[in-house]
Structure formats: C-alpha cells, structure tokens
Amino acid sequence: MNEPLVLGIETSCDETGIGIVRGRTLLSNTIASSMDEHARYGGVVPEVAARAHLEALQPAIDAALAEAGVGLDELDAVAVTSGPGLAGALMVGVGAAKGLAVSIDKPLYAVNHLVGHIAADILTGGSAPLEYPTIALLVSGGHTSLLHVRDLTTDVELLGETMDDAAGEAFDKVARLLSLPYPGGPEIDRAAADGDPEAIRFPRGLSRASDLAKHRYDFSFSGLKTAVARWVERCEAEGVEVPVADVAASFREAVVDVLVTKALAACADLGVPRLLLGGGVIANRRLREVALRRAAEAGVTVRIPPLSLCTDNGAMIAALASELISSGRPPSRLTFGADSTLPV
Ligand code: KG4
Ligand code: ZN
C-alpha cells in the first residue's frame, strides 16, 4: 500500500481528536475538547472526560471525513490510542475504533500516545523530515516525558518522566493557588508577562547532585507547587498582597529551567544534536524562547510542530499508524484493550 488513508482516534485525556492522513499528508484534524466541563473542578475529571468522548466521537468522525472529503469506504486503516492515559477515556476510543474497523472491514492499529506526539512532526510538511536520533520532550497536562527516538516505528526509549505532577498539571494547580482560572497555563503565561522571573528562587525539582544520580532525566513538580503554596500562605499570614505577577514569572521560570536543562542534558549525554518539543505546554512562550536560545548555544536544533499538532489530536495517531503501515507492521489483533500505563 503506497500512501495509506488512515483515520486516527485519540481519547486519552480530555480531547476527542479525529484526524485523517494520507501517507504523510494531513487531510483533517478535528478536535472536540471537554476542557470547559472540567473548569469548575480545576482539573480533568476522568468520568466527565469519558462521557464527553462518548458524545463527541461520532460527530467528530463525521466532521473529519467531511473536512478531508473522503468516505468511510475509502479508508485503508483505522488507528487508535490504546494508552497511556485515563482508563475510561481510552476505553471509549478503543471501543469506537474496533467497531469502526470491523464495520468497514479494515485493519486496526493500536498505538502509543507518546509516540504519537513524536509522529506529529511528520505532518508538518514542507520542512525537512525528522532526523534520527532525536531527543523528544513531551509536556502536557497529562505527561512530562523525555524520550530518545532512534526510529519512530521501531526504537523509542523512555529516558525519564515526571515522578508526580505533569508540568501542565503544575501550571493548573499553581494557577488555582493564585486564584487564576483553569486551564492555568495560559493564565500564568499572561500574568508572568508583567513579573520578574528572578523575584523568587523557587526549587528546581530533582536537580541536586544527589537526585541526578538516580533521576537525571526525571521530573518532579510537587515540591515546586508546595513552595508556591507556602509563599502565598506567608503573604496572607503577613497581610500583604500576593505579588501574582512575580510569583507566576518565578514559578514559570523554575518549570522552564528544569525542562530545558534536562532535555539539553540528554542531548549532550547521548550526543544527539536534535530536540523535538510536543504537548500542550509548548504553547508557553517562555518555554519556547528559553529552549530555542539555550539549544542554539549548545548547538542543538529544535523542532516545534504547530500548536494544533502539539496538543492531543487524532492526526498524530493516524500519522503514526501510517508510518507503521509503510514499514510493513501487521495490524493489531482485535483482542487488545485500553492500557492506562502502556509503556513506549
Ligand atoms: O496537550 P494538552 O492540550 O492536553 C492535555 O494534557 O490534556 O495540554 C493541556 C495543558 C494544560 O495543563 C494547560 O494548562 C497547559 O497544557 N498549557 C500551558 C499553556 N497553554 C496550555 N502551560 C503553560 N503555558 C501555556 N501557555
Ligand atoms: Zn498528550
């Protein structure tokens, strides 16, 4: 099969993503998010996300097909995220994908969400193809992972990940401490614009020499979140107004510093002069700025797909399956299930 026409389904968190690709060409990328429904809880509620996927899936599939201008009968394969992610949310996508594949009698590919984020890069068309090896830093509300990609379809190694909160989750929780709305990332980014990133020296998780021995490429944001909480409490106890802009800027600086430092350490240690960024937190202006500057100083080239392909989406899932098909990988057996802790 030369240029397979693949429909990808992504439901691992709060985005119902349906994407259609032909080979490495993006035809449609439809996303329905239940983020608004989670806003009043200050974070993603798994049951709410699963129910929202159930409601959003069929309209999203119809919209994606219409946008791509293709019919169901033209598809060569269906792809779905089988993990990692929220169990109930994943199950909705996996069930729908199996039903669709069986009904049109086409092969089904179960793929890994994190590897899907890396595959987003191949849809960026026009630019040179992803070169191997590359280091990938994936930061979102659900994951913070550092990967060594030697080959997208056969050789992706997880170097490290967060030991507690994901980076986006830390933004969301700290925003709440500062009485900013959900999702907190964009709010903190905005508030930080008027603040001094050096005003408060917040801790950089797992960055001490004693931590680095065991957790060189791992992340931890819970200590940072607690440090912000203490700072806010102290202001309140002393009856002084919380300097929101300075706290936001200093917090953002601590997150950005640790993400960029560890990603570039992996590049240096492994002799890999390429870094791919992905996940919704890449929307952070300071993160992109610092990553680009420090990578240039270190002789590392940085790739950042457009934001619509960085946040969770179905196109990246379809793209990964398309690569697997082209590499000769047989389809998944229909007995696979959702796996919330699926390894890469
Ligand atoms: O990839 P994504 O859209 O999906 C999920 O993880 O579900 O990422 C969403 C996360 C949220 O935690 C949000 O606060 C964070 O990305 N985020 C940001 C920014 N924009 C979104 N974090 C920091 N700075 C931003 N500008
Ligand atoms: Zn993701």
Automatic annotation (TrEMBL):
Pfam families: TsaD. CDD domains: ASKHA_NBD_TsaD_bac. It catalyses: L-threonylcarbamoyladenylate + adenosine(37) in tRNA = N(6)-L-threonylcarbamoyladenosine(37) in tRNA + AMP + H(+). GO terms for molecular function: tRNA N(6)-L-threonylcarbamoyladenine synthase activity. Keywords: Acyltransferase, Cytoplasm, Iron, Metal-binding, Transferase, tRNA processing. Fe cation binds at residues 113, 117, 312. It is found in: Cytoplasm. Its EC number is 2.3.1.234. Gene3D superfamilies: 3.30.420.40. Substrate binds at residues 138-142, 172, 185, 189, 284. Its main location: cytoplasm. Binds 1 Fe(2+) ion per subunit. Residues 26-318 form the Gcp-like domain. It comes from the Bacteria. Its cofactor is Fe(2+). It is an enzyme of class 2 (transferase). Belongs to the KAE1 / TsaD family. Required for the formation of a threonylcarbamoyl group on adenosine at position 37 (t(6)A37) in tRNAs that read codons beginning with adenine. Is involved in the transfer of the threonylcarbamoyl moiety of threonylcarbamoyl-AMP (TC-AMP) to the N6 group of A37, together with TsaE and TsaB. TsaD likely plays a direct catalytic role in this reaction. This is tRNA N6-adenosine threonylcarbamoyltransferase. The gene is tsaD.
